[in-house]
Amino acid sequence: MTHSIEDQRNNLIKVILKNNLADLRNYIKESNLRLEDLNDDSYDILISVIETKNDISLDIIQFIIDELPYKSLNYFIKNSNKQKGNHYSYGHYKTPLFSAIAYHKFKIATLLIKNKADINHTITDFKSLTGVAKNKINVVNNLYSTNNLSHKNLKYILDHGFKIQRIASAIIKDLITYKNSVKNDLLEIIFRYRIYDNDFILNFLHSYKYQKALSNRKLHYLITKEKNKIVVNDIMYSTTVQNAYYNNWDALSLFFVYDGSEPLKIFERIYQYKIFEKAIEKNDYYFIRTLLNYKPWKQNKNFDIEKLVIKAIRKNNVDITKLLLEFFFLIKNSSEHENYNFENILLEAGKKRSTDIILLLMDFIVKYKIRGLNQTLNFKEMIISIDLYNYIINEMKEDEQIIKNVKQCFKALSSPFSFNTDQYNKIENILFIACFYANENSLNLLKRKLNSLNGFDIIPDSMFSFENLLINNESYPPTLNKDKEEILVIIIESLINNMTKTTDSINNTIIKKWVVPYIAFLLNIAIKLESLRLVHYIIENEVLKPLIDLNAYYKNIENPMIIAYHQNNEVIFKYLLDHHASITIKNEKNTPLWEEALKTKNYKILREILKYSLPLDKNRLFHENSLSPLIEAIYHNDLYTVKSLVQESGYRLDVYSNTNIRINSKYLFTPLILSYLLQNKEIFKFLLNFVNINELDFYGYGILHYAILKEDFETIHYLIDHNVDVNYKENSAKYGHSAIDISIHLANKEIIDTLLISQKILFNIPNKDGELPISNIIKNPDFSLEEKKTIIKDIIKIGSYINFIDVNTPLKEAIQSHSIPLVELLLQHNANVNFIFNNGYSPLVYAIESKSLSMVQYLVEKGSDVNYVLQHKYSNNDNEIKETVILKAIESGDLSIFDYLLRQHAILRFDQKDENDRMIESVDKSGKTKIFEYLTQHYLDQFSNGGIIKSIIFHNQINLLKMVIDHGFNINTQDKNGDTPLGYAVKFSNEYLVDFLIHCGADINHINNKGESIYDISYKYSYRLHGQSIYKKIQKVICIK
Q1: What tens digit of pLDDT does each residue of 583-594 get?
Q2: How far is CA 683 from the centre of its chain?
Q3: Nearest to 79, CA basis, from 47, 104, 54, 106
Q4: pLDDT tens-place string over residues 524-549
Q5: Which residues pair with 78 in a beta bridge?
């Protein structure tokens, strides 16, 4: 009986797996089997045996090598199991040595090397039959591309003669994003083997032995030269930063240590890649300390110190905040900051409402500014400090020691020596009080002060700065957002009163220098506040009206029309036009606003502009191209010449050389559109008989679009009756518009109904932005709910698919608009409450992200799956991470939604590593800890398995760890392996949390179920960059020498 070659291979492998050389010899002899007959380009018996799960004896491996007529063991076969879609060619090939190392069969690998397998062997992979080399594949390339590279086999490779210089920068870059969790270990091994190797150390020992002195310059040269054996380049930094939030942050500190670039270049990279900011985000205390100790700080002034401190405050990290304050103000040339204003830092602390941060700042300011520099607080610092003091007193009233310390600190801050009370009467400071508190008392104080001023003392230079209080106030407390309009009204009234009282004494010089710019300034603020009431109040006031020029530019930059345009406030824009503002105003790029609106699809603004005759500049009209006789004739409203030119062309505008300006026109408008916009009615009617009414202009508008923008029903009906194309269309420059989209943006139901009646609109084709008409209707706030429902019903009747597979599907828009009636309407028309969008989201996930409890409740009642697992990958690597609905609720930070979902039996597990990691990442990124605090209050007993604590430590979340401990968690709790939180911190080489846990009383002598002590674990991981210092600390604490 003849067996197939596949059967012969399988039978042979079964015999080999018995691991008996004598049986193998007998089987081959009795079967009359030639081993070489079993091999081909994609199968090799030696490689197959090596890759079995069993440990095959070295005698059998040697027998196979001897039995087969291999000329060399450096042959390869093509990998038939190569992963589909793998863009690397490296894993496409196998050699016996590559496979032995990949499977950690190091004894076999050593045997192969003895049989002259070359660990430095490379395979040339070719792009095509032409012989163009694609890749030079070595053992490291091969292992990396198949996800088989580990610290064990990498060490084996380097210990057995692999030339480390063959590890190119490209491989290091790839390792940064390597999906295997040991990637940083691999990077450290590579750097350690290559840099500061034995030769380097021996050279230093030789110099020491023979007492050869090395200058600092020579020493720096030698160290830099050694580091540059592996060149750390910008690509490595940028790749790491892009993947830094959770994928591979620690690689940055590794690069920093081994970077052999010039110090200023390294410092430039710190700034360019925002390494400092990211270190604060990651709570990486020791890395920040390393950065601060870097010498170029003394020469560099690019870093925004205030921004860094505020970032640390937002992360609520007291240690890092203190570290930054002490470095920048006490260590680093503190004379640079002698007049520093702590206003914004104090405001951020007020927003964060963190007791520890507030106490730190108050204490620091007393020590540094008052006692150290003998300076007083400025007015704003004092007002904010009072607010913080009151908060602490109310918040910590049961802690007598803290209250005592705060009172002493505040006493120093508010002493006559520390605070100059004369500042209290300055107008800008009273204005700050009004903005800061925005209560009745502060507003009355502002009124009294303004009314007490004589003439125009009200508008000193400093008064212009208060725009930051009203507009640019991200760092200010929520109280500042109250009554902005009221503050501005008080100031305007005061200005009017002063002008009325001093009319006779005002000369033109004062008016031009102070009054006119100040009125313009106030008007611009009113527009930025989007207050039509204030705009109307200023423009309509009889006293101010003669001094207002709506077409002027404040400080040559700001103009009321431009501000209203950028605010996208068509109501104020219309009001300004109605009060004689010019539509010829140009923006900062010297482009007329009407053209900017055409280009950016600002349909509402265009509607207001097109109510007026468009003042087209000839040069702009021709778009810097040669003149067209026809366009010029239309421009001058010359009907006779237009007719003559059309007759000359045989009534075919598309073939006349000077009028061939169709869809791909070089000119701004087509002849028909130009005549329409210039309101040259006779020419327009004449041209309608000869032109293509679907022709588009430079920015992709057709005549129908302009008729809709002008809300010209007569022309709209005419065009529809003459079969105008009502669907989305583009010109050759990819500019295009949809008639229904424009109508929806304008919220003109009559035009929408007209287009619907035409029955030619394709409702299921998204526009260029991927939006469906129903989606745009739902999003438009200018429609009433009943109007939306009516239009949607009409569209559905025509045949729109509700569940059109698109990220902008109507159901999503209705959810994000918080409109339960519209969601209900869509569900009534067969929308799916568990529909899965392209990004893996369900409707319930969108409701959670919208933070609408009522919407979440409605969808759950209608059958939304509260345990749906999102069908997408959270991270960029190949590992799928389960992202559940309840994890999305944690990310949202909305406790009411989270609590509701739990009551609806949403499953939250604490025994899944990926879910724990995702939970901690969500809390960290959102900065919202209420849900996590809820979990510590209700599920603390489930934290004992160690999973959630391990994730907290892995992600370096000291504030969450503090919260867990504050709620009674025992820091010496053991998981099923007998490991404690301190053991986790040591394993993760997290020196910061090792310090914290030891300080909190963690058992330094604990031994886990494997018999490993904390000291043993620290020794085990001491090869790591941060592991060495942890090992020394543990050693010191337990007094081991």
Answers
A1: 889 888 888 999
A2: 53
A3: 47
A4: 989 998 999 999 999 999 888 888 88
A5: 93
